[in-house]
Amino acid sequence: MAMRIAVVEDEEALGILLRYNLEAEGYVVDVIARGDEADLRLKEVVPDLLVLDWMLPGLSGVELCRRLRTRPETERLPIIMLTARGEESERVRGLSVGADDYVVKPFSTPELVARVKAMLRRAKPEKVSTQLSAGDIDLDRETHRVRRAGREIKLGPTEFRLMEFFMQSPGRVFSREQLLDGVWGRDIYVDERTVDVHVGRLRKAINRGRQRDPIRTVRGAGYAFDETFTAPQKPAPRAIERVSGTL
To answer: Does 3.40.605.10 match the CATH number of domain 131-225?
Structure first.
């Protein structure tokens, strides 16, 4: 699953430039022009990394960064701050409110992309890795192959992305809305019932015989991928009848 980067930048031309270069690297990019709008959006969807401008309308980047660090869901969010301020005191201020890195405008776009990659390697190693494993299932992001107990599983593109999304966060319960956003994206309208259809197809593909179903339905909440499943269920041993006789 492609990692998501939020860019909070009010300069339209720079926002377009960053979107183009980051999407070229395979990231999903959301560009937000206002600090107060970003504050609301980040409460709904937490990206893998945030590129944040210092000066923003509605709410400054410094204040937004400070707020994000007080919330449990974003306290560890990697943040790169962009600013035209180059003074040491201003860099110290940006880092003191919780920014992880600091880039002064004008900057080299390839350098910024390199910093994004480096930070994601440190903060999200499980997402950067090309191999995902859970229980007896292995997923290879580069070859788009999935195996269970050595058996290759044929999955369609959507089922592959769904499997990848589940395996990135084993044990976590995702609502249908979260799955729609993470697998299909915010810009595509898909009915929530579509999630049930594709989960059903995924289950049919990965489960054979008495193999345990790793996808758990949580009533009223959504679905979770159970990383604790292991070997196929064994039938209960049959009782041995003792027959008494006279010789």
So the answer is: no
Domain ranges of the chain: 4-126, 131-225
Q: Which residues contact 157 (CB under 8 A, 6 or more apart)?
A: none
Two structure tokens written together for 20: 């183009």
Q: What is the DSSP string of 65-118?
A: HHHHHTSTTTTT--EEEEES---HHHHHHHHHTT-SEEEESS--HHHHHHHHHH
Q: What sign results for the dihedral spanned by CA atoms 200, 210, 130, 73?
A: positive
CATH superfamily of 4-126: Response regulator (3.40.50.2300)
The widest CA-to-CA distance across the chain, in whole angstroms, is 103
The angle formed by the CA atoms of residues 149, 150 and 151, to the nearest 5 degrees, is 95
Q: How would you write the pLDDT of the chain (247 residues) with one tens digit per residue?
A: 568 899 999 999 999 999 998 888 778 899 999 999 999 999 988 999 999 998 899 999 999 999 999 999 999 999 999 987 666 566 666 677 788 888 888 888 888 988 998 888 888 766 666 778 888 888 888 788 899 988 899 999 999 989 988 887 788 888 888 888 878 876 567 788 889 999 999 999 999 888 889 999 998 889 998 867 654 444 444 544 444 444 3
